[in-house]
Specification:
Layout: E1 2-3, E2 21-24, H1 29-40, E3 45-51, H2 74-87, E4 91-95, H3 97-113, H4 120-139, E5 144-146, E6 151-156, E7 161-166, H5 183-187, E8 189-190, H6 198-207, H7 229-240, E9 249-252, E10 258-262, E11 285-290, E12 295-299, E13 305-315, E14 326-331, E15 339-346, E16 350-360, E17 367-372, E18 375-385
Parallel strand pairs: 1-4, 2-3, 2-5, 3-4, 5-8, 9-12
Antiparallel strand pairs: 6-7, 7-18, 9-10, 11-12, 13-16, 13-18, 14-15, 14-17, 15-16, 17-18
Helix pairs in contact: 1-2, 1-6, 3-4
């Protein structure tokens, strides 16, 4: 196994080889089907599988065994190799554990401890997967990297830009997690599943007799063995010597009246109802998390509605940063139905979003992604609502 910074075990090429494509293989049915599709098209394929997390870490979280259907598990690495052997093309496992921990796991824990709710899969795509794998693809002579993401890429010759679009199958669309890609990354990436439904992908996998054709989908984060984020944060913080919080704090209503106490703001997220730790006699929801005061603010569901907010680290993926406010549909979490809004690009890689109608539970740390129909205009990380 090679590391992300050292490629001695990988073949090297001074120039790209015509037709050679590297496939990011997670061991699941989607990326395996991508490899089979490209192989059947007669393209030369090489598989790259990332080892992201040491599954032996934090054994206290294993219980009766790791949670089922996580992505990027050790079994997934073996499945990817089995598929490569079945299709008869080279396959390499690359160790990305250090950058993954630095750029995904630690920020995940840090964000929760500061009262934010992170999107680990977007961080992984933005900061770990695409750029290092594209470098490796170039190292072995492949000009393009193909992945199993459900999204589409097209070229706008008039604007001289590559564009990111939703998948044809809206129920599987993963464009929400890809808004941070650059023009260079889009120009060298391929998403062969973007025009297909999950059922069609399964059929292709069965037709190619792939050993993973009936494998269930991955649902859990690869670094959370038992699926419990709070337990993971506690265990990781103990192992790493990270202070969990400033101790117990207050749970208050919007008027500042103390209703209860909490043992750490990382136990809460915006919109949460269950697990508040006290009986109120009526439904209460988490409205805000004040890390500075170590407070959780709760209130009625109506108070969760927000009409405007800012994002930071904005990336206009398919268009140049607009000089004037633009109409868009904005998604504030993966399962959120995009809502009509005006988006204004601001200095310092920021943007302001104003919805036509208030939206529920705008959550700091989540991503806001801007769409024009199927076209992904851009996105950014949600700051505090205005």
């Amino acid at each position: 196994m090679t590391t992300a910074a050292q490629f001695d075990s990988l073949p090297t090429s001074p120039a790209t080889q015509a037709g050679l494509v590297a496939v990011a293989m997670s061991g699941g049915v989607d990326s395996s089907t991508v490899a089979a599709m490209l192989h059947q098209q007669g393209r030369a394929v090489v598989g790259l599988t990332m080892q992201l997390w040491n599954q032996r870490r934090l054994p206290e979280l294993q219980g009766d065994g790791p949670a089922q259907h996580r992505c990027c598990s050790l079994d997934d690495v073996y499945d990817a190799k089995r598929v490569a052997q079945h299709l008869n093309f080279p396959h390499y496992v690359v160790n990305f554990e250090q950058p993954f921990e630095e750029r995904v796991v630690r920020p995940f824990v840090r964000d929760y401890l500061s009262g934010r709710t992170p999107v680990a899969c977007t961080n992984c795509n933005n900061d770990v997967k695409f750029e290092p794998l594209l470098r490796m693809a170039r190292q072995i002579g492949a000009e393009f990297l193909a992945t199993g993401h459900y999204a589409r890429i097209r070229r706008d010759e008039i604007a001289d830009r590559w564009q990111l679009l939703r998948a044809r199958d809206n129920s599987k669309d993963q464009s929400y997690f890809l808004w941070g890609l650059t023009q260079e990354q889009l120009s060298r990436s391929e998403f062969p599943l973007g025009e297909l439904s999950k059922e069609e992908v399964r059929a292709l996998a069965r037709g190619a007799s792939l050993p993973v054709a009936e494998k269930p989908e991955s649902m859990e984060l690869c670094f959370v063995p038992n699926g419990d984020y709070v337990q993971f944060i506690h265990a990781y913080a103990r192992e790493s010597g990270i202070p969990l919080s400033s101790g117990e704090g207050e749970i208050v209503n919007e008027s500042g009246e103390v209703l209860g106490r909490h043992s750490g703001i990382h136990n809460f997220t915006i919109g949460q109802r269950k697990g508040l730790g006290f009986a109120a006699g009526k439904p209460l929801y988490v409205l805000a998390i004040d890390a500075e005061k170590n407070r959780v603010v709760v209130g009625a569901d109506d108070a969760l509605r927000t009409i405007s907010f800012e994002v930071e680290n904005a990336n206009w993926v398919s268009i140049a940063p607009p000089q004037h406010p633009v109409r868009a549909q904005v998604k504030i979490r993966h399962k959120h139905e995009p809502a009509a809004a005006i988006v204004e690009s601001l200095e310092g890689s920021r943007a302001r979003v104003k919805f036509d109608a208030p939206q529920r539970a705008v959550t700091p740390g989540q991503a806001a992604v801007f769409y024009d129909g199927d076209l992904v205009l851009g996105g950014g990380w949600i700051k505090e609502p205005l």
